[in-house]
Amino acid sequence: MHVLTVLDHPNPKSFSHAAAHHFMMGAEAAGHTTELADLHAEGFNPLWTMADNESDGHSNVPSDVVREQARIARADAICLIFPLFWWGMPAMTKGWVDRVWSWGWAYDQLGDPEQSMQRNRSGLLLIPAGARSDEVEGKGYRAALDTCWTQGTFGFFGFSPRRMELLYGSKGSEARRKALLEQSYTCGLTLPPPTPA
Ligand SMILES: Cc1cc2nc3c(=O)[nH]c(=O)nc-3n(C[C@H](O)[C@H](O)[C@H](O)COP(=O)(O)O)c2cc1C
């Protein structure tokens, strides 16, 4: 498979970068080719503007969106890696989703999110989070994020299979972070292929 990793963090020394690196190493060990979209390093503009609003998804598509869509077109599997911010996506990832997966290209207000306009791709959300698993799972945050992102966003993306992996306690001890990086590697190594159409 060709695996696209979309990374959102400005600091090359961050845990999120290390997680992306380990995920990609795992994917390569499984025999996949990899490509990294390092959104901060590349200066992606996350602001959804009039230019995005005026495009119908086929004509007048902003050139930076065309470039990201070309990346998606050549990918069989896509992994989004971003730190959990305020129980949501950081602005860069949110803007990439808003602008690139546009109306008329990714979806067109279909009743069934399983019927994306895009072909099936394998999808993974790999999310470093400062909180511990008991806090995230016990208070219902995990279930809420899974509904919104795995079922909602990834459903409209046409991802199948799709899942969310939270890297809990990413601000923790060295041992904890090492275990989380191994978890990231395993996610790359065991990435499933897209469900046949
Ligand atoms: C603005 C901001 C908001 C955050 N919000 C949350 C949050 O809602 N839940 C959580 O578990 N961690 C939260 N964190 C912690 C980050 O998820 C954590 O810093 C990150 O996973 C650590 O990895 P990094 O070294 O790649 O930044 C937040 C951090 C920042 C800077």
TrEMBL record:
The name of this protein is NAD(P)H dehydrogenase (Quinone)
Q: Which SUPFAM superfamilies match?
A: Flavoproteins (SSF52218)
Specify the species.
Answer: Shimia sagamensis
Listed Gene3D superfamilies: 3.40.50.360
Domain called Flavodoxin-like fold: residue spans: 1-179
One Pfam entry name: Flavodoxin_2
Record-stated family: Belongs to the NAD(P)H dehydrogenase (quinone) family.
Q: Keywords in alphabetical order, please.
A: Oxidoreductase
